[in-house]
Specification:
This protein has 544 residues and is an alpha/beta fold. 33% of the residues lie in helices and 24% in strands. It starts with a strand and ends in a 14-residue tail after the last helix.
């Protein structure tokens, strides 16, 4: 027999300790159990051959989380060898976890199969926003609203733009990722493709086919996502673009066909349009179909006004590539273009990781299922970032990575995702947080909503750019703000104000009574809040 110590979280009083102690004492294989509320500690004596997971599962059934108080506890007390933390992936979640684990005294090994830094800095947020900014400048040069300033169609050197873009990507990758590996002796990098061969062992296949086994005490899966390619007949084997290849393409297509209608598809479609390509976008449903319908409709009107052809509720039946051209069969016609961008979502990078051997559960899409503590179904294995069932935002990934590391070391950190803002970097931008009117209705909530068009926002009038709106959703009885949807220039800079208002339980009356700087776009939130109880058209320009 053996006696093990466990750190217990979730107890609120001495009665909880007594209840858990009684429950453990009845479990087959447990000879004795004592639980201390003051110490958050359970000491359990097990029969020979009985493993710690029996205790963990029994406690979980009672609503408590327990963690074997082995190396993590010793380390926090300054005793024993360093806990070995192994992280698969090297993006934002990975590095956030690695740095926090090292702070707590662990030794960390990062296993990476590709380029250090993950999606955001290499092929996502950073390069796409640089491209979008360049496209915005090109568009403004030719289409700004000021008659006293001459307009001209810019000459675009795509290769020069890509060189500048990738130079900044390399700078940030080195500053935020590679230099950390170079200067932190407690973080080791192993390059190769990892898979679990049992719950505590990874096998890493390196370039050339050699393998290395890595044993760890705790693991973090942070492998991100990759473009999801539909099984459209004829598509495989053609030189289509994904977002990754589109961002580094040095030639502008004459006619770009875009298959997809969500964030990535729309951002890149507008960027290529503004840089000089003709663009046709094929949407299986509507634009941004998960958002308030007014968002997609309003954005579609803007994009069509700029010259984009948009085909909604359209199915792509087959693809053919011949003599440098793509031929897309959409049923009633064949679309022809010299390049095709496929942007139909992203799938979790979990295939080939051997997660069955580790006891890690996936959902129906292949994403790792985790709880609010970033724990997987295997108690010593955590996951964070886009490969999980959490929202696919880099700021969520980084926050999840930090909390996963804390919990590996015996903490009880929770990631609250009840209020998460999101931004689509089209022009106008789309920014949302909280519930839409439709989502509130699905939850049987009684709500009121107000929509303020931007011709009621003084800064938009001063900018001669009044395309878009601000919509707020509030509880009908209390007036508490529940959601905000914005289609506007600079919407991404506005949404955090709404996020903080929701997080702090503010009512629309309280939001409308706040002091907002004049002239700013974010003042539109105040004005929209005021429409719940007054007619803002009758106010003076900066009335409180």
């Amino acid at each position: 027999m053996k006696t093990l110590a466990f750190h217990v979280t979730g107890m609120t009083c001495g009665g909880c300790a007594t209840s858990l102690e009684g429950a453990l004492s009845t479990v087959e294989g447990i000879l004795n159990a004592s639980v201390s509320y003051d110490e958050s500690l359970a000491k359990v004596t097990l029969e020979a051959g009985v493993e710690a997971d029996v205790v963990i599962q029994a406690a979980k059934a009672k609503g408590y989380a327990v963690q074997l108080n082995d190396k993590a506890a010793d380390q926090r007390a300054g005793r024993g060898p360093a806990l070995k933390v192994v992280i698969i992936g090297s993006g934002s979640a990975s590095f956030a976890a690695a740095l926090r684990a090292v702070e707590e005294g662990a030794s960390v090994t990062i296993v990476e199969a590709g380029t250090i830094g993950g999606t955001c800095v290499n092929v996502g947020c950073v390069p796409s926003k640089i491209m979008i900014r360049a496209a915005h400048i090109a568009h403004q040069q030719a289409h700004h609203p000021f008659p006293g300033v001459s307009k001209s169609t810019p000459k675009v050197d795509r290769a020069a733009l890509v060189a500048q873009q990738q130079g900044r990507v390399e700078e940030l990758r080195h500053a935020k990722y590679e230099s950390i590996l170079e200067t932190n002796p407690n973080i080791d990098l192993v390059q190769g493709r990892a898979r679990f061969i049992d719950a505590h062992t990874l096998e890493v296949t390196k370039a050339g086919g050699t393998t290395q086994q890595i044993v760890g005490d705790r693991f973090l899966i942070a492998t991100g996502r990759s473009p999801n390619i539909p099984a459209t007949p004829g598509l495989a084997g053609t030189p289509y673009w994904t977002s990754t290849t589109a961002l580094i393409a040095e030639q502008l297509p004459e006619h770009l066909l875009v298959y997809g209608a969500s964030v990535v598809a729309l951002e890149l479609a507008q960027a290529f349009l503004r840089l000089g390509s003709k663009v046709t976008l094929i949407a299986r449903s509507t634009l941004l179909s998960k958002e308030d319908p007014a968002i997609g409709a309003g954005l579609q009107a803007v994009l069509e006004a700029e010259g984009m052809q948009i085909l909604t509720h359209t199915q792509l039946y087959s693809v053919r590539h011949e003599d440098g051209l793509f031929y897309l069969d959409i049923g009633n016609q064949t679309l022809i273009g010299d390049q095709l961008l496929v942007a139909t979502g992203r799938q979790a990078n979990t295939a080939g990781l051997g997660l069955d051997a580790a006891g890690v559960d996936l959902d129906s899409t292949g994403a790792v299922v985790i709880d609010t503590h970033m724990r997987t179904s295997a108690p010593h294995i955590y996951a964070a970032g886009d490969c999980t069932n959490q929202p696919q935002y880099v700021y969520v990934a980084a926050a999840a990575g930090t909390r996963a590391a804390r919990n590996m070391m015996g903490d009880d950190a929770v990631l609250d995702l009840s209020v998460v803002p999101g931004v689509v970097f089209t022009d106008p931008q789309v920014a949302t947080v909280g519930l839409t009117e439709q989502q509130a209705g699905a939850q049987k909530l009684q709500v009121n909503s107000r929509t303020l068009t931007l011709d009621n926002v003084p800064r938009a009038l001063a900018n001669f750019d009044t395309v878009g709106f601000i919509k707020l959703v509030a509880d009908k009885q209390t007036g508490r703000l529940l959601g905000a949807q914005i289609l506007s220039a600079e919407a991404g800079e506005m949404i955090q104000t709404a996020t903080l208002a929701i997080r702090n339980g503010m009512t629309v009356q309280e939001l409308g009574d706040q002091l907002f700087p004049y002239l700013t776009m974010v003042e539109g939130l105040k004005l929209c809040a005021q429409t719940f109880f007054k007619d803002v058209k009758q106010l003076s320009c900066c009335a409180g």
